[in-house]
């Protein structure tokens, strides 16, 4: 195993995959900083130390004025950080108490799930991943940081770097997709964007790489479920994006809810000590997920709250989110010798180190730029640009898109004018009043259209309005159907067994197809949506994910050809949910699926004798290919690849190879292409995937223009 892993890493290195570039946030132990930490620790009481390990999470429910008990807890130094305090006056008041009245005047950190934007909402993370553009990822997180810090937020629970190979999982919407290389590049970019140039800049949010680890490998895509990950997959697929985020300087990491191979992450000493601290040299702090320490009880790993605290502390989990096992039991555990004061000191030191790095002791206040930064013009422009670069054109029969601006359009479907839904999951702070829907954009641009929503939400089964929709379709040249999933159908705890268009959407599309008018399907959804039942009824499919605040104008620009959809799939798009999990970087097997040998279920003769001959690793009914592969996406022009060259046809350990290829825009329009480099280690002492992404570059070419891409 070792040998092959080394070869894979070596190949990655020459492509820049594993480079750890110098970064101002990089975790390097600074003696002056360490001295400050030790000095402060030496002055703290045990109660204060326990307080630093406490992430208080119930304050978002506070109405009216802040409860005296909460203020007193801060005054006594019993809280290290807060989650979800979204009232700026409360932030100011609590921070003032902490820094002026608590025994050692240790500042608080205010945290929030700022996932794909704060007020200005960008496409969901799976959409941003589809941009294959690290600049898009970085600028989206920088905008989010600038906006959120004006509310006092200095810590975001992002980026989520869980590789997901199963689109039934609701949180696939938040994921970077299925590929470790793409996810690693994005992870680095997000961290750089959130944390900015300097951690002590008041607009810097410390990042939190989550969920450590294996959360995306939940069995059957059922959220919170068990993960079984062997050592090879752990090191080649699940850990690399986290390593990349740590190398980029992510100051925190969140343990996941799930157990992997029998050990819940919040109690996994090997993960949190051997891998995180020793191997990755991480010197920030670890936060649990919401109650994930005490959830080790139902997992069957801890017998009670005290035992859960003991396991979490010994594993090296620094800060407990919302549950209070540390607060309630550290003293007892110390008295019983189940943990030592040195251990507690070490856990607290990690938190103080980050607080010092953030400059909170010198400058604990909010970034003073509140109102001007929210929905700033450049933020909205970046959000629109991101929505365009994230959208994936999956089908475009007879080049029906882009439409001519004079085309008469029937706009139909449940998501054409749903500002809240197009924001997607994890958008507590985004406001529908500031969101521009496709209908708003069409109105603003004076498009000749008639809007018949027909289904009032994505799961609507009512056919009452079908007639009206068909009539509008008949009176138009083209049907633009905006459908998909409402925001609530993906995200945490929202897994689906079927991932097709819910409600009566498919039925409506089938009825509309009978008018023989071209149908452009615009999908807004948190995951790939199976369209096998309707794909022959529609002419174009534009996947916009949940595109965010500026989804409407972005869709207008793409539909009318002002801009080209720039996305490529960051995840394999299945034909049917029964194919899941499905991913491009699978192993070959001893009987690889092949179209030559494939026997479809309908071709098996009646009374056939039992035989495996002619059958390989496939489904009789769904075959073995996806509907659309990883990396796929159309544009409005065509590219031709020629002259692929390797600097050598052999590579040994520690050697580099240069790969070059000419890419030419042979279409009539300007366009962008994502040049993707895959490798295969053909024979090894352990087997390797059939294909592995090891480099990509997004290039813009005018018609007739040619560029030499190299890796
Ligand atoms: C639970 C989620 O799993 C996690 O991602 C999130 O950051 C926390 N809740 C806090 O809201």
The global form is: globular
Biggest β-sheet strands, sense, barrel: 6 strands, mixed
- Indicate the low-confidence ranges by residue numbers: 1-25
Strand numbers in spatial order across the main sheet: 11-16-15-14-12-13
End-to-end gap: 26 Å
Radius of gyration of CA atoms, rounded to a whole number: 26 Å
Structural class: alpha/beta
* Oligomer class: single chain
Q: In percent, how much strand structure appears in the residues?
A: 5-15%
Mean pLDDT: 94
Secondary structure: helix percent:
25-40%
Number of strands: 21
The bound ligands are: 1-deoxynojirimycin
Count of separate DSSP helical elements: 21
Write a compact overview of the structure shown.
The protein has 711 residues and is of the alpha/beta class.
Overview features:
5-stranded parallel β-sheet, 21 helices, 21 strands, globular, binds 1-deoxynojirimycin
What does this structure look like?
By secondary structure, the chain is of the alpha/beta class. 30% of the residues lie in helices and 14% in strands. The strands form 6 sheets. Strands 11-16-15-14-12-13 form a 6-stranded mixed sheet, covered by helices on one side. A 5-stranded parallel sheet has the order 4-3-2-1-10. Strand 7 (259-260) and strand 8 (263-264) form a beta hairpin. The two termini are 26 Å apart. Mean pLDDT is 94; it is low at 1-25. The site of 1-deoxynojirimycin (NOJ) has 6 residues, from loops.
């Amino acid at each position: 195993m070792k040998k092959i892993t080394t070869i894979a890493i070596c190949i990655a290195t020459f492509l820049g995959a594993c480079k750890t570039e110098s970064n101002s946030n990089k975790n390097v132990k600074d003696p002056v900083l360490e001295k400050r930490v030790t000095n402060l620790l030496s002055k703290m009481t045990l109660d204060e130390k326990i307080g630093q390990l406490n992430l208080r999470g119930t304050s978002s429910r506070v109405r009216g004025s802040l409860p005296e008990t909460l203020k007193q807890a801060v005054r006594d130094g019993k809280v290290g950080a807060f989650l979800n305090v979204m009232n700026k006056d409360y932030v100011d008041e609590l921070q003032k108490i902490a820094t002026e009245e608590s025994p050692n005047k240790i500042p608080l950190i205010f945290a929030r799930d700022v996932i794909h934007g704060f007020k200005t909402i960008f496409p969901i993370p799976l959409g941003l991943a589809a941009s294959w553009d690290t600049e898009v990822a970085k600028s989206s997180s920088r905008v989010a940081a600038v906006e959120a810090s004006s509310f006092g937020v200095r810590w975001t629970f992002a980026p989520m770097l869980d590789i997901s190979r199963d689109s039934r999982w609701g949180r696939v919407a938040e994921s970077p997709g299925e590929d470790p290389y793409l996810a690693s590049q994005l992870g680095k970019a997000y961290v750089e964007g959130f944390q900015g140039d300097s951690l002590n800049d008041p607009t810097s949010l410390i990042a939190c790489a989550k969920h450590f680890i294996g959360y995306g490998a939940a069995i059957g895509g059922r959220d919170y479920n068990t993960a079984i990950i062997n050592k090879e997959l752990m090191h080649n697929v699940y850990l690399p994006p986290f390593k990349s985020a740590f190398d980029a300087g992510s100051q925190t990491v969140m343990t996941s809810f799930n157990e992997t191979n029998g050990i819940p992450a919040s109690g996994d000493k090997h993960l949190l000590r051997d891998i995180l601290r020793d191997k990755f040299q991480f010197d920030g702090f670890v936060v649990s997920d919401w109650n994930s320490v005490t959830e080790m009880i139902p997992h069957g790993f801890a017998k009670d709250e005290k035992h859960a605290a003991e396991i979490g502390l010994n594993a090296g989990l620094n800060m407990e989110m919302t549950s209070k096992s540390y607060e309630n039991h550290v003293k007892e555990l110390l008295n019983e010798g189940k943990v030592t004061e040195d251990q507690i000191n070490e856990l607290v030191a990690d938190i103080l180190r980050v607080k010092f790095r953030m400059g909170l002791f010198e400058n604990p206040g909010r970034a003073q730029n509140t109102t001007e930064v929210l929905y700033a013009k450049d933020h909205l422009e970046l959000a629109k640009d991101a929505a365009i670069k994230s959208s994936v054109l999956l089908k475009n029969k007879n080049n029906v898109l882009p439409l001519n601006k004079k085309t008469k359009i029937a706009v139909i479907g449940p998501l054409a004018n749903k500002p809240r839904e197009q924001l997607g999951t994890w958008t507590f702070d985004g406001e529908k009043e500031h969101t521009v829907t496709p209908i708003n954009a069409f109105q603003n641009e004076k498009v000749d259209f008639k809007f018949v929503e027909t289904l009032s939400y994505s799961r609507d089964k009512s056919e009452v309005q079908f007639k009206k929709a068909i009539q509008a379709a008949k009176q138009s040249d083209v049907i633009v159907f905006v459908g998909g999933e409402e925001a609530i159908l993906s995200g945490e705890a929202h897994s689906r067994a079927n991932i097709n268009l819910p409600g009566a959407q498919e039925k409506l599309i089938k009825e509309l197809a009978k008018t023989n008018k071209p149908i452009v399907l615009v999908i807004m959804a948190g995951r790939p949506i199976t369209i096998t039942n309707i794909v022959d009824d529609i002419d174009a499919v534009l996947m916009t994910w949940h595109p965010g605040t500026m989804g409407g104008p972005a869709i207008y620009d793409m539909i009318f050809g002002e801009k080209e959809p720039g996305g490529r799939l960051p995840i394999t798009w299945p034909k049917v949910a029964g194919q899941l999990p499905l991913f491009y970087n699978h192993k070959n097997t001893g009987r690889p699926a092949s179209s030559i040998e494939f026997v479809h279920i309908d071709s098996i003769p009646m009374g056939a004798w039992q035989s495996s001959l002619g059958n390989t690793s496939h489904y009789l009914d769904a075959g073995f290919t996806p509907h659309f592969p990883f990396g796929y996406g159309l544009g409005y022009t065509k590219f031709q690849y020629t002259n692929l060259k390797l600097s050598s046809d052999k590579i040994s350990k520690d050697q580099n190879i240069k790969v070059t290829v000419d890419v030419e825009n042979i279409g009539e329009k300007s366009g962008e292409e994502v040049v993707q480099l895959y490798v295969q280690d053909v024979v090894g002492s352990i087997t390797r995937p059939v294909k592995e992404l090891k480099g990509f570059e997004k290039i813009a070419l005018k018609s007739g223009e040619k560029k030499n891409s190299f890796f």
